Amino acid sequence: MQTEYIWIALAVILLLAEFWAIRSVLRSGASKNSRCMWMAVIIFAPLFGMLAWWVAGPKPETQTS
């Protein structure tokens, strides 16, 4: 397998993960300003932004019995 194909595959995976993160931000219940900030971070620093969103982003509420 040629090296170029590996880089292309990694770029496609990163792009799909970035779209997932952007979709997740847009669907979150955060305020509009917060969503805009997260979008900027994810777009301008994709790997850092996605990791930061995964760690520090709003979490879905879990139901307790």
TrEMBL record:
GO CC terms in record: plasma membrane
InterPro entries the UniProt entry points to: CLS_N
Transmembrane segments: 6-26, 38-56
Compartment annotation: Cell membrane
Keywords, alphabetical: Cell membrane, Membrane, Transmembrane, Transmembrane helix
UniProt KW Transmembrane keyword: yes
Occurrences of domain Cardiolipin synthase N-terminal (ranges): 19-58
Pfam families, per the entry: PLDc_N (PF13396)
Membrane topology: Multi-pass membrane protein
Top-level division of the source organism's lineage: Bacteria
Designated name of the protein: Phospholipase_D-nuclease N-terminal
